[in-house]
C-alpha cells in the first residue's frame, strides 16, 4: 500500500464505508472472508514512458513493489507500475512516488539490469531525460535500453551505451 494521509475503506459485502488515518487491519474469523476496497491519497502525476521501438510502456513487472523487481516493457494500461516522475533529485519515481528505478548493484557495466528499489538518493538511482528521447543513467553515462531491441511484453530494461535507436527512445504519454 502506498502511503497517504487518509484512506477510505468500503466493505464490499455490507457496503459500509469508513475512513482511517492509521493502520489498516482486519480481524477475519476462521474460514471467513472479508473484502474491502481501499482508496485514498491524491492522484499521482506520474506519466507513462512509451518505448519508440515497441510502443509499449516502461513497467514494473507484475505490479511488484519489492526491491529487485524487474523493469520491463509491457502493454500500456495506466497502472501505478507504469506512472513515472523525474524528480529534482534526478530520480525516476514510480508507485505514487514511493519507489525508484535503480541500476542493479550500482553497476556501470553495459547490460546491467534496471530494477526497482527503495529510493535512497544513491548515484545508481539518478537519471536524465534527454531531448532525443533517451534516458541516461547518470552514474554510468549509459542509456535505458530495451534488451536486445525486443518489442515483446516482458522484455527487460538494461543500461547500454547510448546510440539513440528506437529501443533507447522514450516518449511521455
Q: Which structural category fits the helices and strands?
A: mainly beta
- Biggest sheet statistics: 4 strands, antiparallel
Q: What sort of overall outline do the alpha carbons produce when their principal axes are compared?
A: elongated
Rg value: 18 Å
In round numbers, the mean pLDDT is: 89
What level of helicity do the residues show? under 10%
Structure described in brief:
This protein has no helices and 15 strands. With 173 residues, it is mainly β.
Structure commentary:
The chain has 173 residues and is mainly beta. The chain has 2 domains: 7-40; 49-172, Trefoil (Acidic Fibroblast Growth Factor, subunit A). Helix content is 0%, strand content 34%. The chain is built from no helices and 15 strands. It has strands at residues 7-11, 17-20, 36-40, 49-51, 57-60, 71-74, 85-86, 92-94, 99-103, 114-118, 127-129, 135-137, 142-146, 157-160, 170-172. The strands form 5 sheets. A 4-stranded antiparallel β-sheet has the order 7-8-9-10, with no helix packed on it. A 4-stranded antiparallel β-sheet has the order 11-12-13-14, with no helix packed on it. Strands 2-1-3 form a 3-stranded antiparallel β-sheet, with no helix packed on it. Strand 11 (127-129) and strand 12 form a beta hairpin. The radius of gyration is 18 Å and the shape is elongated.
Key terms:
mainly beta, four-stranded antiparallel beta sheet, 15 strands, 173 residues, Trefoil (Acidic Fibroblast Growth Factor, subunit A), 2 domains
SSE blueprint and pairings:
Blueprint: E1 7-11, E2 17-20, E3 36-40, E4 49-51, E5 57-60, E6 71-74, E7 85-86, E8 92-94, E9 99-103, E10 114-118, E11 127-129, E12 135-137, E13 142-146, E14 157-160, E15 170-172
Amino acid at each position: 500500500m502506498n502511503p497517504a494521509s487518509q484512506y477510505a475503506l468500503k466493505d464490499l459485502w455490507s457496503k459500509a464505508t469508513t475512513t482511517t488515518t492509521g493502520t489498516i487491519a482486519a480481524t477475519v474469523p476462521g474460514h471467513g472472508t472479508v473484502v474491502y476496497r481501499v482508496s485514498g491519497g491524491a492522484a499521482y502525476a506520474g506519466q507513462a514512458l512509451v518505448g519508440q521501438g515497441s510502443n509499449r510502456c516502461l513497467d514494473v513487472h507484475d505490479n511488484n513493489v519489492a526491491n529487485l523487481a524487474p523493469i520491463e516493457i509491457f502493454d500500456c494500461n495506466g497502472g501505478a507500475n507504469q506512472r513515472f516522475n523525474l524528480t529534482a533529485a534526478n530520480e525516476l519515481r514510480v508507485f505514487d512516488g514511493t519507489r525508484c528505478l535503480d541500476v542493479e548493484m550500482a553497476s556501470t557495466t553495459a547490460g546491467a539490469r534496471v530494477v526497482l528499489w527503495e529510493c535512497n538518493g544513491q548515484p545508481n538511482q539518478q537519471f536524465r531525460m534527454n531531448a532525443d528521447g533517451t534516458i541516461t543513467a547518470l552514474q554510468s553515462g549509459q542509456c535505458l535500453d530495451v534488451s536486445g531491441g525486443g518489442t515483446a511484453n516482458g522484455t527487460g530494461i538494461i543500461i547500454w551505451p547510448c546510440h539513440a535507436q528506437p529501443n533507447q527512445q522514450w516518449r511521455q504519454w
